[in-house]
Amino acid sequence: MPKVATRFAPSPTGPLHIGGVRTALFNWLFSKNQKGSFYLRIEDTDKERSKDEYKKQIIQSLKWIGIKHDDKEYIQSEKISDHKKVAEELLKKGFAYKCYCSEEEINEQKNNAKKKGIPFIYNRKWREPKNLSIPTNVDPVIRFKSKMSGNTIIEDLVQGEINISNSTIEDFVILRQDSSPTYQLSATVDDHLMNITHVIRGDDHKINTIKQKQIYNAMKWKVPNFAHIPLIHSNEGKKLSKRDNDSTIDDYIKIGILSDALRNYLLRLGWSFKDKEIFTLDESIKHFGLSGVGKSPSKLDMSRILSMNETYIKNINEDKLFSSLKSYCEIYLKKIDNKFDDTLKKSLYFLKNKAKTLGDIYNNAQYIINDQIKISPQDLKLLDNLSKKILNDFLKEFENLSNLNKENLEKVIKGLIDKYKTNFKGVGQPLRIALTGSKFGPGIYDIIHSLDKNETIKRLKTVN
After folding, report:
1. Within 205-301, where are the H helices?
2. For residues 411 and 117, what is the distance between their CA atoms, to the nearest angstrom?
3. Would you tell me the crossing angle of helices 80-92 and 183-193 to the nearest 10 degrees?
4. Which band of pLDDT confidence, cut at 50, 70 and 90, is reported for residue 120?
5. What's the whole-model pTM score?
6. Least CB-packed of 6, 68, 271, 284 within 10 Å?
7. Confidence band for 22, pLDDT divided at 50, 70 and 90
8. 450-454: long-range contacts at Cβ-Cβ below 8 A with a sequence spacing of 24 or more?
9. CA dihedral 207, 209, 210, 213 (to 10 degrees)
C-alpha cells in the first residue's frame, strides 16, 4: 500500500473561500489520520487573474486555522512543460487529436445546442478528419478522444458508485490554441507527478473526475481514489460563491471568530462522529474518516458559528484568549494600551460572558480601556435627582469600606434599596451608568472589582 497523499489545489485568483477551507481541512485530516502527507498546490496558470497577494492570503489563512502542508508549495505554472509533454504523448498514441474548428464554428454549435435545449457537446468534426483540408489561418487546439460508448464508473469514497454514460462527455480540450494546458490536463498530470493517492474535492467536480480518469487510463497511470464531498450552500439554499456575504475566511477573522472554533464548525459541517460536537485538534485527527461525511449539501449557519465561538471563548485558556484579543484589536479595531493589561486579564472571566466574538469582549471592556467615560444623552436622562442621591449616598459609604468584597458591597446596596424603597435596578442602573457610561454591561460587583477603589470613587464624583 502506498503512503496516503492528499492535496488542496486552490487558484490564487481571490481570497480563500470558506468552502475551500473545509475541503483543505478534510484533505489534511484524512492524510494525518492515515499517517500520510498533505500537499498544497497553487494552480496559478490563469496568468491574468492570479495574484501573489492571494497566494499569500491562502497560505496565511490555512496556517491561521491550523492546517500545515508538507514540503514547500507545489506551483503549477512551473510544471507547464510537463503538462505539454503528456499532451504530445497522448497525440502520438492516438488518444488526442488536433482540432482546427474556428471560434465561429464552435459558437455556432453552442447556439444550435442552446436552441434545442440540450447540453453542448463538440461534434468531433476533426476526430477523424477524412477529406478535410487543414486551414492555414487557424491555430489548432488539442482535444482528448473521449470514449463514445459504454460507461465510466467511479467507486467514490463518499458518494458510492458514480456511473456516467461516455456519450455525454465531449472531446475536451487539453491544449489551447496558444499551447497552454487546460485544467483537465494540468490537474491530472500534477496529481500523477505528486503521487496523490486520494483526491478529495467538491462534488461539482464529478464530470472533471470522469474526464481525468480517461487521461489516467490512456497514460496507463495508477488512478487515485476519489471522494466528492457535498457543497456548502448559503441560507437561501444556493451554492455558496465568493460573492456571498461571509464567504471568505477573512470575513470571520475580521469579526473576531477564533480559529479553533471555526475549524470545529467546518469539521462538523457535513461530517459527524457519534454525537460528539466539540473536537480538539488531536481528536479531529484521531476520529476523522470519509465514512462520516454525508451525501447532502450543508448550509452555512452564521448563528451556529457564533454559538460555537461563544463556547470556545468561555472555555479557552484565558492567557490564550487575552493574547488573541490583543492581536485582534490591534489589527482590526484599535490597539489596547499596555497599561490596561492587568485590569483586562483579571476581568476576562466576566467580560467574556455572553460574548460571541472577540469584538464583543472589546465592546464589553470599553469602560476599562477608555480613560474618559462618555454617557449617551438617553442614559444621562436616567440619572435623575433620585438616582444622584443614591449615587451620592453610595459614594459616602463606599469611601469608608476597607474591604471591597461582594458581601460588603451587597450590604451597602441593600441598605440603599431599603432607604429609598426601590429595587436592585433602582440602585444598580445608575451605578452602572456612572461607572461604565451605559445602562448595559457587566454586573455591578464585577465592574467595581475590575476598577480599583480610587478609579471607582473618581467616576462616581464625576457624575455628582
Report:
1. 206-219, 249-254, 259-268, 281-287
2. 81
3. 100
4. confident
5. 0.90
6. 68
7. very high
8. 450/343, 450/346, 450/347, 450/350, 450/368, 451/343, 451/367, 451/368, 453/398, 453/401, 453/404
9. 160
